[in-house]
Design goal:
single chain, two-stranded antiparallel ribbon, alpha/beta, 5-stranded mixed β-sheet, 51% helix
Amino acid sequence: MLGRLFEADEQLSLESASVAIVNDIGLPPALLDPTVSVDNLVQRHPELAGEFDGLMKPEADAEPGAGAGAGDTGGDTGGDTGGDTGGDTDGASAEVRRAALVSKLLVNVFATGTGNVSATQLATWQSDAGWFERALGMDPGELRGRPNAGGLGSVLAGLEGDLVRRMHLREVLADPALARQLTPSMSLIEQLLRDKDNLSGVALANAKALIRRFVDEVAEVLRTQVQQTSVGEIDRSVPPKRVFRNLDLERTIWKNLTNWSPEDERLYVDRLFYKQTAKRTTPARLIVVVDQSGSMVNAMVNCTILASIFAGLPKVDVHLIAYDTRALDLTPWVHDPFEVLLRTRLGGGTDGTVAMALAQPKVADPRNTVVVWISDFYEWQQQPLFDSMQAMHRSGVKFIPVGSVSSGGQQSVNPWFRQRFKDMGAPVLSGHIKKLVSELKSFLA
């Protein structure tokens, strides 16, 4: 961090010394690279995720008994010197390690540079700011969600606003020719969803066009994945249609082998067999609950689209609930993910108990209901929410906790919830969205 304050020659020396130090304390050199996001660092070194969480909480700054060694100096100088030195060395290493991790967060969040900013750079900063908030013991987006409170929240909101201004997104959207040149991406869509309340006229119309374009592109991919996974099992109570395309040639030949004539070298067929193609479908209720806090935008976009696709399947009753510290029943618009996304408000904290209060009354037939709960599960009220989820699972509901529904990669999930879901027999599903599609299709079968 100090290296950023000096000229190139001094920077080189300081950076070389820093690399040697982080190597000595077992940290990766990528920690020193300000161009590497905290997300990328944690993906490469998952063990660091737990160290960043709560790293700068005020109560962790001073540990009681830190000076305990001083009281022992007088009487035990001779015999205990070696042991005390080892303990002090370990303590110093821990402090250096903590300082290095804090420095990474400070550089990535507060050294925003100058010049134009791309949508991807903005999204990366927002992710790093989320890790900074987690280090302070908060949910991602919680501190930025209260800029009027002053302090760090105001500073972070100011930095984010400056990045948006440097992106000139509103000016680009106000020009139809420039807006058409924008390529829809998850980073851009996230920013449009965050800023939609500040847009109007031509800019708002162009923003909506970009969101709809992205939704349609993702929907086409997801619809193909849904169609590629078979639905339902063969219903053998329905007689097969006696048409040529259903003719079961192998079974027909096998069943008529006794009619083989060696003299004529012919197989005389006196009975035809057909394949049964009718599939049994079970009316099912699918309740999708999506955490719409700032850290879950990827899940919000993917799952609203996925819910709309399943809502189009026959005999599937789909309900959609989005929540942060408040819950919103989006079921009336579940067939139109574009409208759903326009009604969401990304950011803020997370309180799953408000979503559970909306979801529970929707469970009429537990054994014919699946609840998909998409979140990173960093909750304010952990135990009450888990108790409700466990009760729902025990009632016969197919409960699927999901930590990531992106096109690839992993999502950080609260280890407290991850372990309890595993013990409950419903491990957290993370990774590619195809996994979720497969899970849902197997339930509908």
